[in-house]
Amino acid sequence: MDVRFREVDPFNCWVWLRFSEIPSQGERNYVDGIFDSWYVIGRLGGFNAENLQVHEEAEDLSFMRYDNDDASSAMPALMHNMGQLEYHEEWARCWLDLGTSDGIGLDVLINALRQLDSDVVQLDQVLIGGVNEDWPVEDHPDSVFPNMN
Question: At a CB cut-off of 8 Å and minimum separation 6, what does 103 contact?
Answer without folding.
Answer: 49
